[in-house]
Design brief:
Order of helices and strands: HHH
Structural class: mainly alpha
Number of helices: 3
Distance between the termini: 30 Å
Shape: elongated
Helix content: 55-70%
Radius of gyration: 22 Å
Length: 83
């Protein structure tokens, strides 16, 4: 009984349970985005390796820093995630 009262109070405050259809829909969207992101990272890695194999010796890091911006920390890190 106390759990139901707490659930009702959260709903009145605009908070939803994990079983709410809106939360389930958002969960599906997040999962889909996560899967496509992982797939994109794999593809990016393959393209980077392909490019590295094609470049002349010594040009890899120069190209990477100048063209792709995956430099070893020269850019500032992203701010921390705050929900």
């Amino acid at each position: 009984m106390a759990k139901k009262k707490a659930s009702k109070a959260l709903e009145r405050a605009g908070k939803l349970s994990i079983q709410d259809p809106r939360i389930k829909k958002l969960t599906q969207e997040i999962t889909k985005l996560r899967e496509s992101t992982v797939g994109n990272f794999v593809l990016i890695g393959r393209k980077l390796l392909q490019t590295k194999k094609l470049l002349r010796h010594g040009d890899w890091l120069t190209w990477l820093k100048k063209e792709v911006f995956f430099s070893g920390g020269e850019q500032s890190p992203a701010p921390p995630f705050r929900p």
